[in-house]
Amino acid sequence: AAENGLAGWLRYAPIPGAERYRAQLPSHIVALNATATSPVYVAGQELEKGLQGIFGKQCTVHHAHGHWGAAPQVVVGTVDEYTKAYGALADAPELIEDGFWLSTKGQTVQILGQNERGALYGAFEYLSMLAQGNVTEVAYATNPAAPVRWTNEWNNMDGSIERGYAGASIFFANGVVVANMTRAAEYARLLSSIRINAVVINNVNANATLLSTQNIEGIGRVADVMRPYGIQVGISLYFASPTSAVQGQQNLTTFDPLDPSVVTWWTNVTEKIYERVPDMAGYLVKANSEGQPGPITYNRTLAEGANLFAKALQPHGGLVLFRAFVYNPINESVWKNDRANAAVDFFQPLDGEFDDNVVIQIKYGPIDFQVREPASPLFAAIPKSNVAIELQITPEYLGQQCHHVYLPPLWKTVLDFDLRKDNESSLVRDIITGKRFNKKLGGSAGVVNVGTNQTWLGSHLSMSNLYAYGRLAWNPSDDSTVMLQDWTRLTFGLNPSVIDTMVQFSLETWPAYENYSGNLGIQTLTDILYTHFGPNPQSQDNNTWGQWTRADGTQIGMDRTIGNGTGFSGQYPPEIAAMYDNLASTPDNLLLWFHHVNYTTVLKNGATVIQDFYDQHYAGAATAQTFVGMWQSLQGKIDTERFTDQLFRQVFQAGHSIVWRDAIVNFYHNLSGIPDEAKRVGSH
Ligand code: GCU
User: Does residue 12 line the site of ligand 1, with CB under 6 A?
Assistant: First the structure.
C-alpha cells in the first residue's frame, strides 16, 4: 500500500492483457556505455524494473553494444555513444540539451538522448507509454521548451517546512542535513521522470548556517544521490550570511555587496561548495522582501545584489534565480498605495543591468499565489533580462491538502495570457521560454514543499499537480485534460470510468474553489494574518501586507486604474492597460482586482456585484458537495486505502466549502446591508 503513495505515478503496475505483448517486447536492455550511478545506468535499471512490473517480462541489462540474436532489444544512451557503436541514425533528430529521440519501430527500441539526462527522460517516456497500455509504434524527438525546470522546497534547517502540508523535511533535521538519503533519492527519481532538472532544497527565507562546513558536506550528499537521476541541487541564500556566525566561514562586519571583503567571502564560499558539488545548479535569492536583508540595506540596487552571486557562480556555470517577490509593508490609508506595483517598480529600471547568468523568478501574479490573479506585468517589462515563472504546487492559499484543487487550469490563465508587448503576440509562455525576447535562459520554478508523508504532498490527488507542473515546465502548451488523463492512468490504472470521473471532478475543483472563496478577482479572502487557511475576509484590509479589498458599506475592490487609482493597470503594455483600465472591458473574473465599484454595479453576466457574490458562493459550495458523490462512484474501482483517504478529504471539503460560503456571504451581507434576491443570506 505504501508503494501507491511513495511511487507516485511510477508504480509500473501490471496492465490488463500484459501477457499478450510479452513476446514483442524487448528481452535485452542495452544501457549503452553506462558507468555505475550515471543517468544511463539508472535508465537501464528503470527499464528492467518497468518491463518486469508492467508486463512481467524479465530482461537482461547490458552496458555495452553486442549481439543478442534476433531478440528484440531496447538501446538507451546518448546519440553520440549510439553513433559510435551502431553507426549514424538514418533520420538524425534535431536535439538540444536534455532532449531525446524515441523510436519503437522495428526490432530495436531506440531511446537516445542529446545527453545522458535526455536518455533517462526517454526511458521514463517509453515506460509511461507502456504503463498506460500504449504499445503502438512511435518515432519522434522532443526537446525542452526551456532549460530552467526547477523545484523550490521551502525547508528550514530545523526540519520544518514553510507552507508545507506533508510532514517534516526529507532533507534537514536539527540544523543539519539528514543522514538518511533514501527519500531524497526517491524524490529525485520522481522529478526526473517529469524532466525537472534542479531542486533548491532550502527555504527562500534562508538561514546562513546552511553554509557551514558540515552542511556543505551535507548538500554534497544530497547532490550525490540526485545526480544519477540528472537532478542538480541548488540552494537559497541568506543575503546577510557574511555577518552571521557560520561554522567554518569567516565572520565579517558587513554584507554590503560592493565591499571587496564581501565579494571575497562569497567567492570563497562558492568555491568550497563547488569543490564538493561540481555541478551545483546555483543560488536562489530572496532579498529585501518581508524583512529579509538585501542590497538595498546598503543603498545598492537589486541588480548589484544579484550580480554579486552571478560573478561568484559564473566560473562554475551556476545560475542565480533572483526573486521578483520584493515589496515593503504599506499603509492602506494612502489610496494610491499598491503592493501589486512593487515588482515592476523595483525591477523595470534595472532591466539590462543583470548579468547573463541571472534569471528573474516572477510569481505568476502580482500579489501572492491567489486563486485568480492577472498575469504579472513584469513578464513584459524586462525584455533584456532572463525570466522564469514561479508557480506553487503546495496549496498554500488553496486549501492546504484539505481541499482538492487541480491547478493547471489556473496556471494556464497566466501561461497562455498575451501581454501584447509592442502590440505583438507576447504570450507569457513564450516569454519564459526565451522565445519572445530571444533569451537563451528562462523557464519555471515550482514551489513544491514535499515532506516525509507517504504521499509526498499530503494527499494522493495533489500529486497530479506536481506531475502536471513538470510536464508544463517541459512544454508550457501541454493540455490540462491530457496531463490529468495520463497521470490518472499511471496512478490509478486504466479503467476508463475512473479516468473520466477523475477528469470531470478535477477540472471542476478550481472554479468551485474560486467561487466559494473569492470570485470576481477579489482574491482568495482567506486568513492572511496567520494560517492562510479558511475564510477571513476582514483580514484582507487594515493590514500592512497590502493584500486589500477596500470593502466598505457601499463599495468594494481595488481601484488600480491610471486616472483615479494606484496606476497598476498602466504597468501593462498599452493594449492590455487599456483593457484593464476600463471597467467595461475588464472581464468579470478580474473586475474587483482592477476597479472599486458599488455593490450594485451590474456585471457583464447581468447580476449585480453583490448578488453574483452570493450566487457564486452558493454555486461553488454546491459543486463541492457533488465531489463526494463523484469520488464515491470510484469505490471498488481503485484500491481501498487511497479511496478512503481521499473520501475523508472530500467530505471535509464539502463541509468546509459551506463554512466558506456562509462566512463570506454573511460578511458582505452585513457590510452592505443588501438582501440576497434568493433569500438565502441573513435572517428572513
Ligand atoms: C508567501 C508565503 C511566505 C513566503 C513568501 C515568499 O507570502 O506566505 O511564507 O515566504 O510567500 O514567497 O517568499
Answer: no
Q: Where in the chain is the domain with CATH 3.30.379.10?
A: 2-142
**Residue in 125, 153, 396, 478 annotated catalytic:** 396
User: In this predicted model, what pLDDT tens digit does every residue of 207-260 receive, in sequence order?
Assistant: 999 999 999 999 999 999 999 999 999 999 999 999 999 999 999 999 999 999
Delimiting residues of CATH 3.20.20.80 domain(s) in the chain: 150-492
Within the chain, which residues score under 70 in pLDDT?
A: 1-3, 683-684
ipTM over 0.85: yes
- DSSP designation for 235: E
What is the pLDDT, as a whole number, of residue 1? Answer: 45
Cell of 456: 509526498
CA of 659 to the centre of ligand 1 (A): 25
- For ligand 1, the distance from its centroid to the CA atom of residue 391, given in whole angstroms, is 12
CA–CA separation, 27 vs 668, rounded Å? 67
- CATH homologous superfamily of 516-558+596-672 equals Alpha-glucuronidase, C-terminal domain (3.90.1330.10)
Q: How many whole angstroms separate alpha carbon 196 and alpha carbon 357?
A: 19
CA–CA gap between residue 24 and residue 151 (Å, rounded): 38
Per CATH, the architecture of 2-142 is what? 2-Layer Sandwich (3.30)
290 is catalytic: yes
Using CA atoms, how far apart are residues 122 and 422, in angstroms rounded to an integer?
A: 39
pTM of the model: 0.98
Q: Which CATH class is domain 150-492?
A: alpha beta
Q: What is the pLDDT of residue 683?
A: 67
